[in-house]
Every structure is written in C-alpha cells, then in structure tokens.
Write a structure and sequence with these properties.
Transmembrane segments: 46-65, 98-115, 127-148, 154-173, 185-205, 230-248, 269-294, 314-333, 345-362
Family: Belongs to the binding-protein-dependent transport system permease family. FecCD subfamily.
CATH topology: ABC transporter involved in vitamin B12 uptake, BtuC
Oligomer: single chain
Membrane topology: Multi-pass membrane protein
GO molecular function: transmembrane transporter activity
Number of helices: 16
CATH architecture: Orthogonal Bundle
Distance between the termini: 43 Å
Structural class: mainly alpha
Largest sheet: none
InterPro entries: ABC_BtuC-like, ABC_transptr_permease_BtuC
Radius of gyration: 23 Å
CATH class: Mainly Alpha
Number of strands: 0
Length: 369
C-alpha cells in the first residue's frame, strides 16, 4: 500500500474514531439530561427520605380527607380505636383503605420496574403485557364456573392467571426473527389484554348474578378495604417483595445484554425466571384484592429513573415507595373530584397513565425499540 493509501486509511480511521467519540459524548449528555448518570448515593438518600416523608403526608391526608368532612377530635378518637359516631366510623374505614392503597401501589410500582428490567422494554407494565388481565380472567372464570368464594382461592387463581399470561405473552413475542424484542412484546401483550378482556365479558355476560360485582371489581379500586381482606394477601406480597428486591443485582447484569451477562457468570434464564416470579406474585395478589389497575407500573419506574438513574439496587425500592405514594394520591383525588360520590382509583390512574404512555412511545420512537 502506497503513501496515498496509508493516508486514506488513517483519515478513515480518524473519522470513525471521531464519530464514535461524538456518539459517546452525545449519549452521555442525553443520559445526564435524563438523570441517568452522575447520581451520588447521598443525593439518592436525600430523594429517598423525601419520598418517605411525602408518603407519610399522603397517609395523613388519606385518613382525614374523604367524601365526608370529619372533625379533628373524631379523627383522634378513631385512631385510638373508638367508633362512637359516623365521623369516627368514616375514619376507621379509611385506615385499612389507606393501608391497601400503600401495599397495592408498592406492589404494582415494583412489578413494573421488574418487568421493564427483565424484558429491557420501556413500555413494559403489568397491564400492557397482559399480566393483570390474565389474573382478572382467571378470577372471573373461577367465580363463574367453579364458584370460588374464599380469599385464598381468589389469590391463587389470580397468581396462576398472571403466570400463564406472562408465559403466553413472552412465548408469542419470542416467535419470528429477532426473538423477544421490546416492540413485539408490547404488541403481543396489548393484543393479549384485549383478547382476555373480551373473554371476561363473554364469561360474565350470561351470569346476571355476578355481573354487577365483577364489573365493579374490574375497574380497579381500594374502596371497601378491610383488615380481613388484606390479611390473606400479606404472605404473597411479602414473598413477592423479597424476591423482587433480591433480584436487583441480577437485573443490573441483564441490563448489559444477555451475552455480556452470561460472560460475567450470570445464568440469564434463571435470573429472568426468578425476577419474573416476584413480579407475578405481586401482580396476581394485588389484582385479586383490588382488581386490575393499569398504567401505575409503567409510570412510576420512569419517574424514579429521573431521580436515581438505572441502578436497580436503588430503582426497585424507589419504585415501590413511589408506587405507594402515587396510588394513594390517586385514591385521594378520586374521593374529592366527584364528591359526594367517589371515582375509583383505576379510572384515575388510567387518566394519568395514558398521556405518559403516549409520551414514552413518542420519545422512544417505537420503530427504534
């Protein structure tokens, strides 16, 4: 190769290196703007304390605000266990409702972060991927065809339905060239949700004896919560929370890509299965007691990434606390906007989540997913 050829080769290599450097610089600027890098542990700790304080304030508001105005003496008496008048009884009803909103919101927020980490899909959500609707269909079939009535039967049916739906959606999304791409998973999950929703209507339609209760439950809400309804679901939520939080390091490895994660010694299939199991337990148990609540698992992890970045060791607990706060806030809004009636929390989260979903799709430019 002559001098001209060497000069051209050097020029081409220089241009390629320059292009790569500019791309890296641009990616870093984008990540910094989105809050994905440069987060120190003290800053994350500050945000964590702030979220906990906000959740505590929302708990106080939830107990004091509702369709009925209650005086401060009645609030204090109700918190002490007295239910001597209507005001104190109203506050006593709000206490388990607040607890259920916290548990359900934390479960759905954490499950959403897990699903986005497992599938590496920014659109992943228990509702969009069909998991919630699979749990809903299993419960409806159990009630209509097998006459289940116990809380344990509801929970096991919902978990089984959620697991089958997750496997089905992932299998469908894995077919064809390229495997389980984010876009194929989102499309297969959306189609599955629509199909399951139609099947729920088909099962309920001829059963007028259960239609009213099923339709009310399907909207998704925390109204009518009691400690008797909450207690059976606590063991399932506890196991789901433990599995999900312990999967943080594995999700960080999966975020690097399957090949690199395997090269680092990670069992990719096992890591995905264990993390998914935690999300399925959380989604199934929450759906059994609250009904299918959409979009919460989509919105919360994206908001939390702006605060703490993409490290799942921080993202998962933030998503749990953020989900609890957001669902509790949505429940409070639902009590206020339609007074003296109430707006179910599932409607409020859908109104909030739909614009965020559209914004995420536009930002990601679906064709690039």
């Amino acid at each position: 190769m002559g001098p001209e050829g060497l000069r051209g080769l050097a020029c081409g290599c220089g241009k390629k290196v320059s292009k790569q450097i500019s791309m890296i610089s641009r990616d870093r600027k984008t990540s910094r703007k989105a809050g994905l890098v440069g987060r120190s542990n003290p800053a994350r700790g500050f945000w964590l304390l702030g979220l906990i304080a906000l959740l505590a304030c929302l708990c106080a508001v939830s107990v004091t605000v509702g369709t009925r105005d209650v005086s401060w003496p009645d609030i204090g008496s109700a918190l002490s266990g007295h239910v001597d008048n209507i005001g104190q009884a109203a506050v006593a009803v709000r206490i388990p409702r607040t607890l259920l909103a916290i548990l359900a919101g934390a479960a759905l927020g954490l499950a959403g972060a897990i699903m986005q980490g497992v599938t590496r899909n920014p659109l992943a959500d228990p509702g969009i991927l069909g998991v919630n609707m699979g749990a809903s269909l299993a419960v409806v079939v159990g009630v209509a065809w097998f006459g289940i009535t116990s809380a344990e039967a509801y929970i096991w049916s919902a978990i089984l339905g959620a697991g089958c739906a997750a496997v089905f959606v992932y299998t469908i999304g894995s077919l064809g060239r390229g495997g389980a791409t984010p876009l194929k998973l989102a499309l297969s999950g959306t189609a599955t949700s629509v199909a399951f929703a139609s099947m729920v209507i088909a099962v309920v339609l001829p059963r007028n004896d259960i239609a009213g209760g099923i339709r009310s439950w399907q909207i998704g809400g925390v109204g009518g919560a009691t400690f008797e309804r909450i207690m059976p679901v606590l063991p399932f939520l506890a196991v789901g929370f433990a599995i999900s939080l312990l999967s943080a390091r594995k999700l960080n490895s999966l975020a690097l890509g399957d090949e690199l994660a395997a090269g680092l010694g990670e069992n990719v299939a096992l890591a995905r299965a264990v993390a998914s199991l935690g999300a399925i337990l959380l989604c199934g148990a929450t759906t059994a007691v609250c009904g299918p609540i959409a979009f919460l698992g989509l919105v919360v992890p994206h908001l939390c990434r702006l605060l703490v970045g993409v490290d799942h060791r921080w993202l998962l607990p933030f998503s749990a606390i953020g989900g609890a706060g957001l669902l509790l806030a949505a429940d409070i809004v639902g009590r206020i906007v339609a007074r003296p009636a109430e707006l179910d929390v599932g409607i409020v989260t859908a109104l909030l989540g739909a614009p965020v979903f559209i914004a995420i799709v536009r930002r990601q430019r679906v064709r690039e997913l």
